[in-house]
Amino acid sequence: MHSLRKIVSMLITTLLLLGLTFSTHAQQPESGVTVEEQEVENGTVTVQQVVIDQQGWVVIHAQENGAPGPVIGYSQVAQGEHTDVTVEIDERQATDTLHAMLHIDAGEPGVFEFPGADSPLTVNGRVVVEPFQVIGLQEAPAGEETPGADETPEAGETPTEPPAVAPGETPDETPGETPDETPTEMDETPTTAPDETPTEMDETPAMTPDETPEEPAATPEETPDTELPELGGEGPGPWSIILLVLGGLIVLGAIALSVARRRS
């Protein structure tokens, strides 16, 4: 009889421990991000909700070949739950689809080191990441080169100076020379001016397209290729542990009944 009471006490203790374990697990929400379709405002995007189980980062990746690509912005977050996390991004590298991903802060605290120690956060072997759409995205490089085109007409003021000088010299030479020579010099003056004007104008736009592709071409070269773990999915939950414990309880109960029958 004493042994039966001892077994029952063990069963009750096991059940209490199981309840505490399940309660603790329920109080710690799983790491994740929630982000919605939005516009880029003042060079920033907003992640509506962030849950992270350690010190880390909310990192915005541009899309590349249908998957998260180069990093275009990041913001540090402390352990716990956060709402409306603002992340400043580089709009020049932004794509129509961006990816909000959680990274750990495993290197120097407060310093984003990726590629490096601050790798993507994983839950059950899967990266915590959420894609979202960006609407009304404007291409910054096209707007930045517009002032360069406005400067071209300023350089074109050079050919306007020769006509101003040529008429000034013509009256001085006209009295001393035959009237037939005057129209000859006037004809040469405008002839030279138009020839120089298109030459300089042609050289100016020729430099613009040559320089334009060189700047974007450097962007993908500087971005290191980083292999990210497999995305999405969920692993086994706490129910598998509960089932194992319940199975053990059933076995213990059967042993207790067997011992009780033998003693009776």
Structure description:
The chain has helices at 2-27, 140-144, 146-155, 161-173, 181-211, 214-222, 239-263, and strands at residues 32-34, 38-39, 44-52, 56-64, 67-77, 80-88, 97-104, 122-123, 126-127, 129-135. By secondary structure, it is of the alpha+beta class. It has three domains: 2-26 and 245-263; 31-141, Immunoglobulin-like (Sandwich), CATH 2.60.40; 146-211, no CATH class. Helix 1 (2-27) runs antiparallel to helix 7 and helix 4 (161-173) packs antiparallel against helix 5 (181-211).
Query: Which CATH top level class of the largest domain fits?
Result: Mainly Beta
CATH superfamily of the largest domain: Immunoglobulins
Strand content: 15-25%
SS summary, helix count: 7
Number of domains: 3
Average pLDDT works out at 72
First-residue to last-residue Cα separation:
9 Å
Q: In terms of per-residue confidence, which ranges show pLDDT below 50 for 5 or more consecutive residues?
A: 142-156, 162-167, 170-179, 181-213, 215-224
Number of strand segments:
10
Secondary-structure-based class equals alpha+beta
Corresponding CATH architecture of the largest domain: Sandwich
